[in-house]
C-alpha cells in the first residue's frame, strides 16, 4: 500500500512539473528554427537568431543593463537581508513579527502596486530612468528572499557557538566573520542567487522606472512581443531560462554541499 502511495505521489509530482515546465521550455526549440516566424515544431536548426541577438546593439545594451542591475541588486539585497535576518534571529523584542511581516511584504504585494508606489517616490528623488533606481527597486523585491534563506540557516546552526566565542574574549566582528558567517553561508549564498534571479527576471517594476537607455532584457522581450515577434525573441527567452535555471541549480548545490 505504501509503495502504491509513493508511486502515485511521484506520478502527481511529475505531471505537475510537466504541466508547469512545458509551456516555458517549448520556447527553447523554437529559438533554433530556420524560418523567420515562430513555429512549432521548429523547421531546421540554426544559431543565427542567437548571433543576431548577441550582435545587436539594442540587445547588447539591455543585457549589460540587466547584468549590472542584477549583480548590484544581489550585493545590496544580500547585505541588507543578512543583517536583518541576523538581527531578527538574535533578539526578541516587541513588534518583531510586524517587522518580519514588513520585510516579507514585497513577496505578497501585487507588483503593479509596488511599481506605482515606487514610481511616485522615485520620481521625487530623481531616480526614474536610472540604473540606481532600478537597483533600489529590485533590492526591495529581492530582500525578502535573502531574509527567508538566511533565517533558515541561522535557525539550523549551533546556537551555543556565538556565546562561546564571545565568552572566550572574541569581539563581535571577529565572531561574526569566523563563526556566524561560515555557519550561515549556505543561506547567504542561496539568498544572493535568488536575489540575482529576482532582478534578472523582473519586468513590471522595471517598466515603470526604466527608459530606452536603461531598459532591461525582459522589457526588450515585451516590446518585441508587441511589435516584432520573431525567433530572436525566443532566443533571448531561452537565454533567460538558462541563466535562471542555472541559478536555481547552483543554489541547490550550495545547500547540498554545505549540509
Characterization of the model:
This protein has twelve helices and no strands. By secondary structure, the protein is mainly alpha-helical.
Task: Supply the key terms.
mainly alpha; 12 helices; 259 residues
The portion of residues forming beta strands comes to under 5%
Q: What is the number of E strands?
A: 0
Mean pLDDT: 83
Helical residues, percent: over 70%
Sheet with the most strands? none
Outline the low-pLDDT stretches.
none
In DSSP terms (H or I, runs of 4 or more residues), the helix count works out at 12
Q: Shape, please?
A: globular
In N-to-C order, the SSE pattern is: HHHHHHHHHHHH
Output the radius of gyration.
Answer: 22 Å
Structural class: mainly alpha
Distance between the termini: 32 Å
How does the SSE layout of this entry go?
Blueprint: H1 2-25, H2 27-30, H3 48-55, H4 57-90, H5 96-104, H6 111-125, H7 131-156, H8 161-167, H9 172-201, H10 204-209, H11 217-227, H12 231-258
Helix pairs in contact: 3-12, 4-7, 4-9, 7-9, 8-9, 9-12, 11-12
Brief characterization of the structure:
The protein has 12 helices and no strands.
